[in-house]
Amino acid sequence: MGDGGGEGSRAEQLIAIADRLSHQPVPTKRRRGWVPIAVAIVGVGALVAGIAGLVNSGNGSTGQSAATTVAAPTTAAVATPPTTAVVATAAPTTAPATTAPATTVPASTVPSTTTVALIDPADPVRWAEFSGGKVYLQGRVPDQATADEVSRKAAGVVGADNVVVQYVIDASAPRPNSAPLYVRDSVLFAPNSASIDDAARGVLDLGVALMTQNPSVTIDIHGYTDSDGSPEGNLALSQVRVDEIFYYLVSKGIDAAKLTRTGHGLADPVADNATAEGRAKNRRVEFTINNLLG
Questions:
Q1: What residues have CB less than 8 Å from 179, skipping those under 6 apart?
Q2: Do 66 and 204 have their domain in common?
Q3: Are residues 217 and 137 in the same domain?
């Protein structure tokens, strides 16, 4: 019982102290309005703590833990500033290389050269080629008189404006009585065909005119192909083509006895069959004109 009386007097003393503290005037000049309130709160807190200590002590509990639980100041949570979101900025990608639109260059038409030179002019000494409606006289002749004579006879067939003289005057050159006239097969026939093109009939008519104006002239017709295809097939194609030419000239009144015809296929190439240009030169018809110079 004695312990209980002592505890009551102690509590009464604490309450009395707290009451005096709460009624004690506070100078207004030195303290702000919130100070009395703070003091009162502290006093009440001390009183409650004291009472709680007495009660816990009476119950046999450890006062240390109770005082720690109530009186320990709570650490105010520090407001953490909002985290600035870091936006991952994609590195600028290199724009894919744009392919510039291909500039279309119009194909230029290459004018036909005046010197076609289908063969090496080592033999025969002189020759001619019919190309683009003109006759090109090429090779070597012994003198200007020979050049003029051949040019005049060619002009009588195709016209003077369609004769291009490219002879080289060489006193050592013989004056052969025969010379080949080369005509590309594409002038006479469609590709892989033995039918004479309508436009080619005009070319063959020039041969008719030549033989009519020069009765002593005879013509040997030779057909050649490139190396594409089988040798047998090329030989057959070249023979059919020269036969077609032969029958056309005969149908125009030319004596068959003045004509010969031979298909050679891919034999005797005059150019390289490995190139398109060379194959075009090898696909040809040769008209060997005999007795033109009388």
A1: 124, 125, 126, 127, 128, 139, 150, 288, 289, 292
A2: no
A3: yes
